[in-house]
Amino acid sequence: MIEPDELVERVWERDPTVWTGHDEAHWLGWLDEPLRARERVPELHELATSMEDQVDDVLLFGMGGSSLAPEVLRTAFERERFHVLDTTHPKAIRRLAESVELDRTLCIVSSKSGGTLETRSHLDFFWERGARRFVVITDPGSPLEELARKRQARLVAGEPTIGGRYSALSSFGLVPAALMGVDLGRLLDRAEEMLNACRVAEDNPGLELGLELGTDWQEGRDKVLLDSNDYRFGLWVEQLLAESTGKDGKGLVPAPDETGPGPDRASHPTLLEDPYDLGSEFYRWEFATAVAGAILEINPFDQPNVQLAKDRTNEVLSGRGTVPTPTPEGSVEELLAQTRPGDYVAIQAFVDPAEEERLQPFVRRIREQTGCVVTFGLGPRYLHSTGQLHKGGAPIGCFLQIVDDVGPELPIPGKKFGFGSLIHAQAEGDFGLLKERGRPVARIRLEEAT
Predict the structure, then answer these.
(1) Cβ atoms of 239 and 289 closer than 8 Å
(2) Contact at 8 Å (CB) between 261 and 101?
(3) CA 375 to CA 373: how far, in whole Å?
(4) CB of 136 within 8 A of CB of 155?
(5) pTM, whole model, 2 decimals?
(6) Is the Cβ–Cβ distance between 429 and 315 less than 8 Å?
(7) Are the beta carbons of 278 and 184 closer than 8 angstroms?
(8) C-beta atoms surrounding 404 within 10 Å
(9) Read out DSSP for 402-444?
(10) 142-180, pLDDT tens digit by residue?
């Protein structure tokens, strides 16, 4: 184990041997992004000001790192006219499309790669329905950048040296924040204070948290609970921890909604006295995750198993006009009978997000019945978040997939399949991958859980 003062120094030197010695140095742009972001504040303020009298609602299309920080910011600052679309469920997409006046709506299209299937499908759907005000956030050279120029959309470049889950304080978080009316200078002030505190070993909040996370993992406390889950901050932490550490048969299991004690879990406070503290907390947890990755001896900046789920979705869709509703397989009782002390149960709900609250009593019953940590994720959102951990992490998960009736098919312009077939393919693809890895997995319909 590297000594703490040396660890901090080598992180700031961009030394990849802190982790695995591969390409980690390329993905450390988040370390000083709050400083670079200051230069963009006038541009983003101008963008927000130019929209004030033209726009009533803002829709953000994005997945994973492009959607979770904006969702936390939206919740924290209570912006009800800002909507984050990170589902492919036809009912949710219809409901959102019918709730806004598109001629008074701004659409943010957010994808680092520019090729995210869900995001491009959302873009094409709303474009066909008549939306014409678009802001595109993507990395330079992506296919989405080319499309933005063709359609004369406002284009904001991402930083190529930052991975999606570390991008909260980059354009992917700050453009949405500006359009919410957030004071970017104040938010970045908090981030910069934490950045400076993380430069040295003494009284370094990010280092201290990272050492705690790593030590907990070494001692078998691999479930990460959050003392305070204000602003749905746990949604963002879930992706950061799970996708960063869940690989090579290892991993920290974020469980932000868990409260019960247990020998396999450790609780950590979130330092959020007001919404602007998100600036410092985003940074503190990013630095801590990098430190924890050094202790786990993994690359915290790649996500080797995420692409597998995308590829499998495409395989299921290939050559088909429609994909049938996935059928039940196994039972809750049979699945839970396989749990062991130290396991976790992951409920993966490919349902209308409006059903999330309705499922919470079921989640609590599973928690009480098993005594295990129980996590909950909406599909396909979790595929871009905890999905990496489920397939690449330690084999200690039991997985329950829940599907529902998606209603009439909703076509995707330019595709042979619609959103209903897409969400079915995503559910089917991930289910198959879990089975192939020998993970205990079952599937039920929503009616069985409510």
Answers:
(1) no
(2) no
(3) 7
(4) yes
(5) 0.97
(6) yes
(7) no
(8) 19
(9) EE----S--B-TT-SSBHHHHHHHHHHHHHHHHHHTT--EEEE
(10) 999 999 999 999 999 999 999 999 999 999 999 999 999
Q: Give residue 306's pLDDT.
A: 87
Cβ contacts of 312-315, under 8 Å, gap ≥ 24: 312/429, 312/430, 312/432, 312/433, 313/117, 313/422, 313/425, 313/426, 313/429, 314/117, 315/429
User: Phi-psi category of 132—alpha, beta or left, where left has phi over 0 and alpha has psi -120 to 50?
Assistant: alpha
Please identify which residue in the block is written with the tokens 């559910």: 427
Tell me the residue type at 388.
Answer: Q
- Residue 227 corresponds to which amino acid? D
- The rounded percent of the chain whose pLDDT value lies above 70 is 99
Specify the pairing of strand 223-226 against strand 253-254: parallel
| Residue 47 parent element (H or E) | helix 41-51
pLDDT in tens, 290-343: 999 999 999 999 999 888 888 889 898 886 667 888 999 999 999 999 999 999
Please, are residues 25 and 14 in contact by the beta-carbon 8 Å criterion? yes
Q: DSSP characters for 422-433?
A: HHHHHHHHHHHH
Estimate to the nearest angstrom the gap between the alpha carbon of 355 and the chain centroid: 19
Q: CB 137: neighbour CB atoms within 10 A? A: 29
- What one-character-per-residue DSSP string does 246-306 give? --TT---EE-TT-----TTEEEE----SSGGGHHHHHHHHHHHHHHHHHHHTS-TT--TTH
Selection from 125, 123, 127 nearest residue 137 by Cα: 123
Q: Report cis status (omega within 30 of 0) of the bond before 254.
A: no
Q: What is the pLDDT of residues 186-199, one digit of tens each?
A: 999 999 999 999 99
- What is d(CA 376, CA 388) in angstroms, rounded to the nearest whole number? 15
Rounded Cα–Cα distance for residues 11 and 243 (Å): 20
Sign (positive or negative) of CA dihedral 287, 291, 296, 298: positive
**CA 366, CA 143: separation in Å to the nearest integer?**
44
Alpha helices (H) along 297-403: 306-317, 332-336, 356-370, 387-392
Cα dihedral sign, 414-418-421-426: positive
Token pair of 103 as six digits: 């001629």
In three-state secondary structure terms, 173 is helix
Report the pLDDT averaged over residues 409-423: 96
DSSP character at residue 398: E
Say how many Å lie between the first and final Cα of the chain, rounded.
48
Contacts of 158 (CB under 8 A, 6+ apart): 112, 137, 138, 139, 140, 167, 170, 171, 172
